[in-house]
Amino acid sequence: MKKYFILLVFVLTGTNVYSQSIDLEPKKTNSSSSIYVEYALLEVEFWKNGEFKNKNVSSTIFGLNQHFMLSNNLDVIASVGLSEGFEYNFITTNLGFKLSENFNLNLGGGLYQINDDKWAPNGLNGNEPSNIEFGMNFGINLMLNDNLGISMKYNLIEPKEDESIGSMSLNGLSFGLVLR
Q: DSSP alpha helices (H): ranges in the chain?
């Protein structure tokens, strides 16, 4: 997985450099990169020794964003990253709606590979269990100046379902800093 993460970082960085070399509009770039760190407060529901447990855990998230400008008020944001604490890796794509020059709303989804020991999925209906989940997120981003911003997201990686079928859940809030 780390090989794919490194490859994706190089692809996103190369795309950023290439798009800035194309002069479609004077003094404007079609994409930009940013790095971020977030502190996440997650609620995890899981099975351990045949017993259903609910635990609140914290995690630190490190990531790289690539913003592609579609219009003056709409961006596509590709993101890759990893989490320490409750461990998972992710690749997401979001739509960013600009409400003002420094404030935007994000909505998107992506793939999450969960590596934490607490996450031991059971196969439902005879299917093989998987530690890869499709999740959604939405949040806000406020740029304080040209290089520094703050963000808040709600991450819904695995929704709550009926515990009688052995389902687990993972969701929570994250707060962070963005550096462009």
A: 2-21
Q: Which amino acid is at 162?
A: D
- CA distance linking residue 20 with residue 37, whole number of Å: 25
Find how far residue 131's CA is from the centre of its chain: 16
CB 94 within 8 A of CB 74: no
End-to-end Cα, the chain, rounded Å: 25
β-sheet bridge partners, residue 94: 77, 108
Phi and psi at residue 60, to the nearest 5°:
-105, 130
Rounded to an integer, the average pLDDT of 48-76 is 91
Give dist(CA 24, CA 70) in Å, integer.
Answer: 13
Helix/strand/coil percentages in the chain, nearest 5 = 15, 60, 25
Measured CA to CA, the distance from residue 135 to residue 58 in angstroms comes to: 18
Which tokens in the block code for residue 43?
């609620």
pLDDT tens across 75-99, in order? 999 999 999 999 999 999 999 999 9
